[in-house]
Amino acid sequence: MKKRSLKIPFGSLDGRLVAPENVARGRDCNCLCPNCDWPLIANQGGQTRPYFSHDRGPECVGGFETAVHKMAKQIILDHLTVVLPAHSVEITVPVTSEDDVLTGSVLYPERLVQLVSAVSEKQAEEPGRWIPDVPATLKNNAKLYIEIKVTHGVEQPKAEALDNLMEIDLGDWEIDALADTEVLERAVLRMAARCWYRCSLYSNLKKVRQKQAELEAKVSEVLDRRRRREDKERDAAREHQRQREAARANYQQDLKKLIELNTVAGQEAREKLLAANSSKLLLDIPQRFPREFANGSWPKYLSVRVAGDWLFNIDRRVWQTYIYERAIADVPKGHQVSVKPLTDSIVRRFGVVDWAKRLSDLKLETLFATSNRKTPVTEKNVWFLTSEENALIRTPSSVVRSYLDALVAFGLLKRASPHTYQVEI
Could you tell me the pTM of the whole model? Predict the structure, then answer.
């Protein structure tokens, strides 16, 4: 209802609601206010729609709403017919558990029904002493409870307690429309919005049973389809594992060495071996770089621990000094240092551990896949290796790049691009 009105559209006469145009004018109407039982005057002027008002008494704020509400109930009782709201019956059939279900629905549209009987505001049979606006009985002896909404809808406890409870909503209709008996009749019986709060009228009808049977028949089909899919997934997993093991077989010994070398004991043994094999070169370096060794100790930037620094067949201090000499010490400030040519030069000069090179080449093949053979955008893992193994595999260029990044931190270089650096001293 768009706004409240103090005009009373219907009066009570001998227990029934009547329109002002259908009774005597003025006080002779003998009508009472449906809300407060105060005597009414029937106003039948020609300029406005006829209406009731209190006879020399205070106007009744709830008179309009109560009059419309009671007239709506009277219309249903007089006609014993009403349009039921549309209703969708939701059907659930478990497959393996309550959380694993098949669902379906059957939609019943709005339909006009005849009422065998109907009364006004009689206590419902359901527990709770609830009193619906219009309790009614359908032809199949089912109970139907009708609520009329003018301004206030059904409260939640009542809505939850009563089965087959529908509401007819007159709240959005204009005041003048609701004051017209014929318009109100059409609204109540057919045209006004209506809804179900609870409804079991359709739960056991033929279409619902058929839909239930259809879903139940699909359960075995769904289970069979799942079993076939699971069998297929297991077969695929077994084949994947077979291929993985076959692919790993060619690198099994190399991977074993990789894991052993990355232990504390393995790292220490590798460092001692490389230091021993590089002893003459390590003695020669301080003599070739007297300025860098002026304080008598090995410069930190010429002995940087980086992941995979054991990869080359020489002590890390030797290959790092080699980089310093070629890329920094003997070049002017601003000179560009490229990772690949520098890496290639180190590999040619010092070599790489054979088994580590095989793993490195394998990693590079993955990085430069066929679909992205020019430049690897993101690092990829070798599919048949574990995440730990993939993380331990280092390529010569990644070791060199890690060292150049360390020189950036020392202020000797500045990164110019993903693959080049610029001398800063």
Answer: 0.60
